[in-house]
Amino acid sequence: MKFAVTSQNFRTVTPHAGRARRFLVFEAKEGAEPKEVDRLDLAKELAMHDWHGTGAHPLDAVDVLIAGSFGEGFGQRMASRGIVAVRTDNTDPLEAVKDYLAGKLAPAGPSCDESHHHQHQHAHAHGHAHGHGHGHAHGHGHAHGGCCCHHEEGA
């Protein structure tokens, strides 16, 4: 079984799986200690938030993705690719894999703890230059609502 653990610094489990580009890859065989077998350092356009391709993706090689946080849409996208996405409060990647193997991390559900909702604003500005010496920008703002984090009680 292969695991990808979000780790922007290649040392700790980090949040925001949809924007993550760095992952520690572990392999776990029954009865053996999980081992780090690879590191993914994806190009910006391969972060799941930005990637809208329909073909193969480097994360397709894993069975389970572990992250500090992600939204419901990310969990659904992973499930549609045959990848189980789980959240953890553990910051140690190896321990997070062990927690999953021990049944301590459940696959992400469709809803989050009602007391822990976030609203994130993302604004995008696009400049357009014209040949007559001036440019103007068009602001395109959109809001992403919903829960991006999940903290399990007693985990």
Q: What does this 3D model show about the protein?
A:
With 155 residues, the protein is mainly beta. The relative contact order is 0.18. It contains two helices and seven strands, in the order ββββαβαββ. The strands form two sheets. Strands 3-2-1-4-5 form a five-stranded mixed β-sheet, with helices on both faces. The chain starts with a strand and ends in a 9-residue tail after the last strand. The chain has a domain of 101 residues: Dinitrogenase iron-molybdenum cofactor biosynthesis domain (Nucleotidyltransferase, domain 5), CATH 3.30.420. It is 12% helix and 32% strand. This is Dinitrogenase iron-molybdenum cofactor. Keywords: Nitrogen fixation.
Structural class: mainly beta
Write out the strand line-up for the largest beta sheet, numbering strands in chain order: 3-2-1-4-5
Largest sheet properties: 5 strands, mixed
The 3D shape can be described as: globular
The helix tally amounts to 2
- Termini distance? 23 Å
**Using DSSP, what is the number of strands?**
7
Order of helices and strands: EEEEHEHEE
CATH topology group of the domain at 2-102? Nucleotidyltransferase, domain 5
**Can you tell me the CATH class of the domain at 2-102?**
Alpha Beta
Proportion in β-strands = 25-35%
Radius of gyration (Å) = 18 Å
Q: Spans of 5+ residues with little confidence (pLDDT < 50)?
A: 111-155
